Structure formats: structure tokens, C-alpha cells
């Protein structure tokens, strides 16, 4: 049977890894796909750059537009990143009747609904396993393996940079800036790390997970996003002492009022498996009504881990290319005409538990004032811990753990507590999830 011809847009880390994995496992991949998968052409901005992988037999061209227009290309693999040029190229490839494989989470989070509708109309597939959690096959697991379930919630550590920073801060007691600099030196963080550390990368991936879990359109603009830049080693230490770990969690949950869609630092009980995911590793916890909680763990980035997902998508597209478009697995797991219009909840309507750290003057009546404010706002306190004042100090740290309550009430409580003359510093607030 004639080989499937692939055009690669981008010859960076993942592009090179894709070539390497396809070559090394060619026979195995061919047996699984039913025919050979061959990279026919690839685009690269720098044609003279030395690369670790052999490009023998691959035509290298300077413009990606050349590849998406070629009649001999069956599948276009988009690995250039960004959401402007990539969107144009993907839509042109679809217009030209080509299937698309992409690892571009920003592209899908921002334009996925448009791209999937266009692909459906043209009868082609867009595969995107590599867009979330690198080599972990989480998209396929939710779209296919858990299709019998009503997904209740998903919680994920899906940014290795942030997880590495938090692991190092906790283990070594180092400040955020120092650990970030080390992460950049080791290549775990970009020179401009804002997309990672501000939670935007996690929000892109969570948008995709929520869409396939609940059959809703991509709605990145409605994700609540809070990064890790304001966390201090002292809060990680206090959390550890209370039996928790702080992780940057992307969480989406189905409720009676709508869908929660949020990214923020979260206290997670240390006994949970996901709380023990360290360094640059990723993990996604999916809770279905029939199967219960299932945990997926592995490398969330890297040349061959991500290439593993890209090649898996190539095999899937190859297997399904000749099938009836109406009977393929839908892009967002649900049939396009059955997507839900469930609302995304505003953050102030979310209900969760909280860790609050107050810097308080060491004098009688302070805790009574604080607990009175909480009681007035129907906030039930689970525990209060007061640290001993150091010699010569007149201020102490007070840590409060609350039961589940509405974020609107916590916001009001924080404003009133910070208004007390006995609270000289802003209140630190970290949300808490049991993830049962």
C-alpha cells in the first residue's frame, strides 16, 4: 500500500524528535498503522542549521506555506507554535483536504472551535494528543478510554517548569527568583518564562481538557488564571507541616450551576499520589462516575516524549483516513451538533477550602476579631495554627484552614481582615482541594 506522506512544519526539538522516533520504530509503526508513514518534506527557517537528527530523504524548504499546498502531502504536522501564523497554515491545510496533527496548545485553546468546525466541514481530521501533557496519552484516554463515563472533574499538574520550581522551593527552602534562575540555567524554563510561571500554559491545556471532558467549546478567555510568582518558601513549609503540598493545579469540574475552569496554586493532601509528582513530571487526575479517580503520569515535555504523542496521532490518522468522516471519533469527544452550552462559573462563585496566612500583632483579641469576621460571612474554620513569635518580635504568623466555602465570602473576609489595625501585612490566600 502507498505510504502516507507527511509534511512537517518546524524542525525544532519536537520536529527532530518526531523524525527520530519514526525512523527508529519504523517497522513497528508500520505494522500498527497498516502502511508506512514517511516524512516527505519539512520546513525550517534556518536551512543551514546543524541538527542532531539526519534529514536524509526529507526535502527541506524555507516556507511552511509550500508544504500545506503540496498535493503529495497527506498529513501536515504543525510544530511551529504560536497562534497567528499557525492558525493560517492549519486552516489552509484543511482547505487543501489535508489532515492535521498539532502539538500547539495555544492555537487550539484560542482557535480550536473554529479549526475543528472547519475540519469537520471538509471531512478531515485534526489530531492533538501532543498538545497536553507531552507523552501522556490523556486526550485519547478521555475521548475514548473513558467514553462510558460522565466525567466529574479533572485536576492536572501540566506544566513541568512550575512543578520543578515548586519542588525545589519546598525541598531546599529557596526563594522563587533563585529557583527560577536555576531552572533557566538547566533549560527547564524559557528565557522569558512568563507563559509558564503566570499559569497561561496550564490554562491553554486545561481549556482543551475541559472541552473534551464535558463536550463544550474552547473557552480560554473564561479560565481563571493565577500563577506561582507570589508563592513563598514559608507557605510551602507551613503547608508541608500541615500535611499538604502546594502544586500549580489546573482544575475543571462539572457542578449543578456550571463548569469550573481554573488554574492556581493549590494545597493538596500529601498522601495523594498527585501531590508526590516532583520535578518536571506531569500528572492528570480524571474522575469519572463509573471508573472513579484515574491518574495518568509521565513526561510532559521533551523531544521524544512529545514526539511519541505526535507519532501516535499520525498512526491514528493513517488508520482512520479512509473511514467515513461521520463515524470517526469526534474532535471534542462529543458529536459536533451535541456540544453543551453549560456556563463557565465566575471565580467568585467557586466553592473550595482555603489556606490563609495572616501576619498579626502578638496581642490579645486578634484571633477573636478574625474568627468573628469569618463567622459573619458564614466561613467555617477547620483549624487555626499560631506560630511562636521570635525573640524581640511583636508579630506572629497565623495560619487558618477553612472548610469549603464560596470564594466571594473569602474575598470579603480578606478585605475586612486586612482592614484590622492588628494585621499589618496582606493576607496570603491559597486554595485547598482534597481531590477525592
Q: How does this model look, in words?
A:
The chain is of the alpha/beta class and 436 residues long. It folds into three domains: 4-135 and 303-338, NAD(P)-binding Rossmann-like Domain (Rossmann fold, 3-Layer(aba) Sandwich), CATH 3.40.50.720; 138-299, Dihydrodipicolinate Reductase, domain 2; 349-432, Alpha-Beta Plaits (2-Layer Sandwich), CATH 3.30.70. The protein contains 14 helices and 17 strands. Strands 7, 8, 9, 10, 11, 12, 13, 14, 15, 16 and 17 form an eleven-stranded mixed sheet that branches. A six-stranded parallel sheet has the order 3-2-1-4-5-6, sandwiched between helices. Helix 13 (366-376) packs antiparallel against helix 14. The longest helix has 18 residues, at 105-122. The chain is elongated. The chain starts with a strand and ends with a strand. The model has no long low-confidence stretch (mean pLDDT 94).
CATH homologous superfamily caption of the largest domain = NAD(P)-binding Rossmann-like Domain
Percent of residues in beta strands: 15-25%
Total discrete domains: 3
Return Rg in Å: 24 Å
Structural class: alpha/beta
Shape: elongated
The CATH architecture classification of the largest domain is 3-Layer(aba) Sandwich
Main sheet characteristics: 11 strands, mixed
Count of β-strands: 17
Please state the oligomeric state of the protein chains shown. Answer: single chain
Total count of helical runs of at least 4 residues = 14
What are the segments in which pLDDT stays under 50 over at least 5 consecutive residues? Answer: none
- CATH topology (fold) name of the largest domain: Rossmann fold
Query: Which CATH C-level class of the largest domain is it?
Result: Alpha Beta
Amino acid at each position: 500500500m502507498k505510504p502516507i506522506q507527511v509534511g512537517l512544519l518546524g524542525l525544532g526539538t519536537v520536529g527532530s524528535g518526531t523524525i527520530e522516533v519514526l525512523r527508529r520504530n519504523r517497522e513497528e509503526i508500520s505494522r500498527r498503522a497498516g502502511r508506512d508513514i514517511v516524512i516527505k518534506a519539512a520546513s525550517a527557517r534556518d536551512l543551514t542549521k546543524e541538527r542532531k537528527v539526519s534529514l536524509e530523504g526529507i526535502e527541506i524548504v524555507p516556507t511552511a506555506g509550500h508544504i500545506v499546498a503540496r498535493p503529495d502531502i497527506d498529513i501536515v504536522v504543525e510544530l511551529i507554535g504560536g497562534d497567528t501564523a499557525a492558525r493560517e497554515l492549519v486552516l489552509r491545510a484543511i482547505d487543501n483536504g489535508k489532515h492535521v496533527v498539532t502539538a500547539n496548545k495555544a492555537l487550539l485553546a484560542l482557535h480550536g472551535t473554529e479549526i475543528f468546525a472547519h475540519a469537520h466541514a471538509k471531512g478531515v481530521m485534526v489530531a492533538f494528543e501532543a498538545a497536553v501533557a507531552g507523552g501522556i496519552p490523556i486526550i485519547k484516554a478521555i475521548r475514548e478510554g473513558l467514553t462510558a463515563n460522565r466525567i466529574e472533574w479533572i485536576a492536572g499538574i501540566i506544566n513541568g517548569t512550575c512543578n520543578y520550581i515548586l519542588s525545589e522551593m519546598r525541598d531546599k527552602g529557596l526563594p522563587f527568583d533563585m529557583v527560577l534562575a536555576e531552572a533557566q540555567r538547566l533549560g527547564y524554563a524559557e528565557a522569558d518564562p512568563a507563559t509558564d510561571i503566570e499559569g497561561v500554559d496550564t490554562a491553554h491545556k486545561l481549556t482543551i481538557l475541559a472541552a473534551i471532558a464535558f463536550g463544550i467549546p474552547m473557552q480560554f478567555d473564561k479560565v481563571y488564571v493565577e500563577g506561582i510568582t507570589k508563592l513563598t518558601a514559608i507557605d510551602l513549609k507551613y503547608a508541608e507541616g500541615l500535611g499538604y503540598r502546594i502544586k500549580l493545579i489546573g482544575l475543571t469540574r462539572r457542578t449543578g450551576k456550571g463548569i469550573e475552569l481554573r488554574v492556581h496554586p493549590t494545597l493538596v493532601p500529601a498522601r495523594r499520589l498527585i501531590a508526590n509528582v516532583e520535578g518536571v513530571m506531569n500528572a492528570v487526575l480524571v474522575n469519572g462516575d463509573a471508573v472513579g479517580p484515574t491518574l495518568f503520569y509521565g513526561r510532559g515535555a521533551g523531544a521524544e516524549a512529545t514526539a511519541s504523542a505526535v507519532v501516535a496521532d499520525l498512526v491514528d490518522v493513517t488508520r482512520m483516513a479512509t473511514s467515513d468522516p461521520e463515524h470517526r471519533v469526534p474532535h471534542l469527544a462529543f458529536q459536533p451538533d451535541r456540544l453543551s452550552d453549560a456556563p463557565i462559573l465566575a471565580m467568585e462563585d467557586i466553592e473550595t477550602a482555603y489556606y490563609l496566612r495572616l501576619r498579626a500583632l502578638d496581642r490579645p483579641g486578634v484571633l477573636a476579631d478574625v474568627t468573628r469576621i469569618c463567622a459573619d460571612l458564614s466561613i467555617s474554620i477547620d483549624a487555626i495554627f499560631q506560630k511562636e513569635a521570635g525573640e524581640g518580635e511583636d508579630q506572629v504568623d497565623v495560619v487558618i484552614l477553612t472548610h469549603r466555602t464560596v470564594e466571594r465570602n473569602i474575598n470579603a473576609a480578606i478585605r475586612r481582615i486586612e482592614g484590622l489595625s492588628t494585621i499589618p501585612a496582606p493576607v496570603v490566600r491559597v486554595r485547598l482541594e482534597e481531590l477525592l
